[in-house]
Amino acid sequence: MPIPDFVLALRSKIGHDPLPLPGVIAVVLDERGRVLLVRRSDTHDWALTTGCLDPGEQPAAGAVREVREETGVEVVAERLLAVEVGWFDPAEVPPLPPHQARCLATALDPGAAPWFAPSPAR
Q: Which domain of life is it from (predicted)?
């Protein structure tokens, strides 16, 4: 999915400074109880449908839009599972998934070498 125009406009003003954006994760189940997954273009891993909200967009509407944009599947948001956000001192961040913890540690270390995940073998 291309970077939304509003994010490009913000980036043109603030450069590469942190840009916290509200996001959504859609858990889509069909009538047989199967879960809808998408293949990530960057890592080729299977994942739930995710995306950032457009300015002023409500989470349920954003989740429906992201599923439609990324999969072409029309869905109805039936319930909200969670909405949590918080600012944390880097020393007090709660446990994160290993990849996210590594990203945070690298970002906080001004002398850290850039790190890129290897492309999966095809």
A: Bacteria
pLDDT digits (tens, 9 = 90+) for 39-72: 888 888 899 999 999 988 989 999 999 999 999 9
In CATH, which superfamily holds the domain spanning 5-86?
Nucleoside Triphosphate Pyrophosphohydrolase (3.90.79.10)
Q: CA-to-CA distance for 61 and 71, rounded, in angstroms? A: 15
Question: Phi and psi of 5, rounded to 5°?
Answer: -55, -40
Predicted local distance difference test score (pLDDT) of residue 82 = 76
How would residue 85 be classed by pLDDT, with cut points 50, 70 and 90?
low
**8 Å CB contact between 85 and 22:** yes
Q: Quote the tokens at residue 105.
A: 């540690």
The predicted pLDDT at position 56 comes to 87
Beta strand 49-52 pairing with 46-47? unpaired
CB atoms within 10 A of CB 60: 15
